[in-house]
Amino acid sequence: MNSKLIAPSLLAADFANLQRDIEMVNQSEADWFHIDIMDGVFVPNISFGMPVLQAIQKHAKKTLDVHLMIVDPDRYIKTFADLGSDVLTVHYEACPHLHRTLQAIKAEGMKAGVSLNPHTNVSLLEDTINDIDLVLIMSVNPGFGGQSFIENTYEKVKQLKELINRKGAKTIIEIDGGVTNKNAKQLVDAGADVLVAGSYVFKSDHQLETIKDLKSIVNL
Ligand code: DX5
Ligand code: ZN
């Protein structure tokens, strides 16, 4: 992928002004909406579910990048397709039959993503990488916004890039957690294609400019 993408995470938006924050992203130079779905079981937090995604989808005019932090995601693949998800990412750690799950996501017309927790080694994707459209590397432990970036992520991105190249896969690499203007360039240089940013964008006093800056840093 040539142009590098920015995906603001709505988890950090003001939920009482969600439409306003969605319009901000629509008007910005951001590329995707990152949507975090948490079930309070796979991760120790609950975010929001289908009715909220349905409301988001009505206003969002960009790619919907849905990150499922839930157990047994197979139960909801069709539901998330019907809600307009373009990319559906499941966790490696939540999928005992990952290959089947990936095929089911693609059968619903979505791009299939796999996310790795910080402790999960990229080599575990050796046998599935050619079936995966996107790998989401967690650069914090999933469950909460606003945590600090784990430095070992750079090394994981390099390992993943090497695996993708070696297998001749078309997989793109997304990074999620603690992304700021301080680590964005180094992540892209290591091989990242898409950067998720929650707090860094939404806690900024100048959100449009913050997105614009991030977008220019990663495409230098
Ligand atoms: C964390 C979520 C992230 C989160 C990132 O479990 O998957 O998408 O919103 O938030 P920041 O950018 O604040 O770390
Ligand atoms: Zn996420």
Protein described:
This protein has 220 residues and is an alpha/beta fold. The chain has a single domain, classed as Aldolase class I (TIM Barrel), CATH 3.20.20.70. It is built from 8 helices and 8 strands, in the order E-H-E-H-E-H-E-H-E-E-H-E-H-E-H-H. The chain has an 8-stranded parallel β-sheet. Helix 4 links the parallel strand 4 and strand 5. The chain is globular and about 45 Å long. The mean pLDDT is 98. The chain binds D-xylitol-5-phosphate and zinc ion (ZN). Zinc ion binds next to strand 2.
At CATH level 3, the topology is TIM Barrel
Q: How large is the share of residues in beta strands? A: 15-25%
The helix-strand sequence is EHEHEHEHEEHEHEHH
Bound ligands, each once: D-xylitol-5-phosphate, zinc ion
Which sheet architecture does the biggest sheet show? 8 strands, parallel
The Cα radius of gyration reads 16 Å
How many domains is the backbone divided into? Answer: 1
Please tally the helical runs, counting DSSP H or I stretches of 4 or more residues: 8
Helix content: 25-40%
Distance between the termini: 14 Å
Q: Which architecture does the CATH hierarchy give at level 2? A: Alpha-Beta Barrel
Tell how many strands the DSSP assignment holds.
8
- The overall pLDDT average reads 98
Strand order within the widest beta sheet: 1-8-7-6-5-4-3-2
CATH class category name: Alpha Beta
Structural class: alpha/beta
Task: Report the CATH superfamily.
Answer: Aldolase class I
How does the overall form come out from the CA principal axes? globular
Low-confidence stretches: none
